[in-house]
Structures are given as structure tokens and as C-alpha cells.
Amino acid sequence: MEFDTIAAISTPMGEGAIAIVRLSGDEAVAIADKIFKSPGGKSLKKQASHTIHYGHLVDPKTNEVVEEVMLSLMRGPKTFTREDVIEINCHGGLVSVNRVLKLALTNGARLAEPGEFTKRAFLNGRIDLSQAEAVMDLIRAKTDRAMNVALGQMDGKLSRLIGDLRQALLETLAQVEVNIDYPEYDDVEEMTVPVLLEKCTWVRNEIIKLLQTSSQGKILREGLSTVILGRPNVGKSSLLNSLVQENKAIVTDIAGTTRDIIEEYVNVRGVPLRLVDTAGIRETEDIVERIGVERSREALRGADLILFVLNYADELTIEDERLFETIEAMDYIVIVNKTDLPQKIDLARVKALAGSHRIVTTSLLQEEGIAELEEAIAALFFEGQIEAGDLTYVSNARHIALLHQAQATVEDALAAAQAGVPVDMVQIDVTRTWEILGEIIGDTVQESLINQLFSQFCLGK
Q: Which residues form the TrmE-type G domain (predicted)?
């Protein structure tokens, strides 16, 4: 498969020691050779693959020196895209890196689309679609655990398992074809149905195992939407600052200081939290504060976890009890804060309202109770199972949806076979399951979906 030559900046924009401009395509080496001058005047076209060269980029039209660079030359197919690849290491800086990119573009390269390098790796057969998606998961990983899951998927862990499932279904379909082609042999069907039941049962069970890891995998990939909830002045902003370990939110003794939503990502013992500090929920005549309270209620509706903060030095109010009712069906942890002050809250009543939900006491001012809170968050969602390194985690929402579809169709096949439906009819559900699993790794996926997926990648990857 031949493509034109693309170029893009592959490092974040801004000031830094080094920036990289990457080219990929049949003309990558020729374009680089046109603009690169080494001290010895050597031609890049004659250099060995996977070598690095010092020199300057020179505009061939004006002979103006554009940058001092180190240039890496890598010939396909032993590259990320399986094409010829040039990586130009220049000085980090907006002006410098843009001048290098512009020079490549004016000498024959085209600006790459978002994710186009990884898309070429997929289209050229170096990686499958699930591995390509794992590249972006790796870039976006917020914790070590999330990164390990992405690395496993990039390495083909999920791909190999999906391949095994599809192979089992393929063997079943082959057996069914024998039954259809040689109907005169009565014992063929007797042999086919047990094989079909055995293979499809194994496939279903493996799909169920994968789906059992999906909730944890999705958390690792996307983070938990975590809302800090409570009345004004109970310590919500202090909790945000303690977890983030920075003074992100203004903390005062004045109730209603937080007027708007504050969002931060934080890593709590391997659990990525998308932490939302909300305006204190109460009835108020202040127009600005009322808007903040309404935004708090909206954030609450989309939350995966609630950190419900109460004041140890205040009696429970009707508003507190209403908040307990609001979050009754959700996952939440109660945090009784300000234990450094004299107790006024009725802890027995708090326990009765919380039921089986965890209660943690803290003094955020004295930095007490944070470790217990972090342990409660990790235990609530991972229950110690996340450390199982031999598990294949499925974290991508697209993969999860397809696995649910595959489970449904393979169960239809099993039910039909057990009910005595002719095997050539059962074959339809088995074939559909095989196709759905193929969509995960890109074997049976439509071009429009491929374009949509890669458009979500960052430019230069």
C-alpha cells in the first residue's frame, strides 16, 4: 500500500530542550536529503537504516540555514509505520519547530492528519485496531496501572485472546460446513453439535471473563468522575487541595466561597479520579451562588463516586439529610471533617443514614485521615484485584459494547443448538459472533469507523 509522505510535529508545543518533527512515506528520505546538509556533505540516500546524523537544515531556495539538528533515518519496513521514517530533532521552541515543519512541507511533504502515523501502522499491517487504540490510551494514561493496561494491549495481549476466540469459532464453522456439504452421512451432525456446543460455550465464558474486567479497565482508562459534595464551609475545597496536594481552590471561613466547578485529575493509589469541587449545595438568594449550586447538581448526576463531606463541629441539618437521600443509590464515601474542633455532629445518626457506605473522619487542617480516605477509595473500586498481572483488561468503550454484542449472539447460537435447530441455521449466529469480534481488532471494520477513531488522536501521532 503506497501513500504520500506526511510530516508533523510529534512533541508538545512550547519551550523545551528538544522538539521532533517526523516524516513518513516513500519520499521521506528524499525530502530530508534535499534540506539536510552534514559537515562532510554526505547524502542521506546512501546512509544505512537506523542511523543518526548531525548537521543543519538549509532552505534549498535561499541557502539560508534554518536549524542545527540531529536527524534519525529509519527505512521501512522496520519502522512504526512500516514506511521510510525521518525524525528531525531540533531545538524546542515555537519558532524553531515551526520553521523545521514548514521547510519539510514546502519541499514535498504534506501535513499529517490527527493520528495518521498510527493509522498507517494499522493499514500497513504492523498493528491491529485494538493496538492502535492502545497507543492513545498510553499517551492519556493518568496512573502507572492505566499505563500497564495500555502497554499490555499495545503488546497484543487483547488481540491474541480475540484471535483465539475467532479461531475457535472458525473451527466450529468449518465443522458445520462439513455437515452441510455431506448430509448423506448421518453421524456428521451427531459429531457437529457437541463440537459446536463445546467451542461456543468456551467462547462465551471467555467473553464473560473479559467483561468482568471492563468496569475496572474503564476506570483506569477514563478515570472516575468524582464529585465532592456537601453544604458550604464543610471543607470541600480543602479536600480537593489535600488530594491534589496543591492550593487549587480558595479556602476561607466564609460560606459560599466556591461559586463554580473546579476540576482536577488526581491519582489516588492507582485510581485516576477526575475530581470535581462543587459549590456548596444550599438554598440561597445570591444569584451567582445559585448558578453554582445548580451546576453542582448537574455534576452530581454524572458522577461515578461522591465524596460527601460533613462538618464534625456542626449538627446535622435538614440539608445534610436531603443530600443523603439524593445520593442514596450512588457509590459514595462519607467524610466527617474538622475533627480538630469540638464535636457537635451525631455520628450514630450519620452511620444510620450511611448504612453500608464507608465513613472516614478527617481533620484536613491537621492533615489527618487522608491515608484512610485514599484506602477507602481504592478498596471501593478495585478490591485488591487490579494487581492480577495475568488478567487481560478491556477498557475501551467500543470494545466493551462489541463484546456485549458477541456474548448475545454466541448465546443465541448455544440456545438454538440446544433446542435442536438445524446446524446450518445456528451457523448464522456463530458467523455473526466471529464478525463482531473481528471489529475489535479491525478485521471486519468499516472504513468510516477507522477514520473516526484515528481523528481522535493527537496531531503527530
A: 223-382
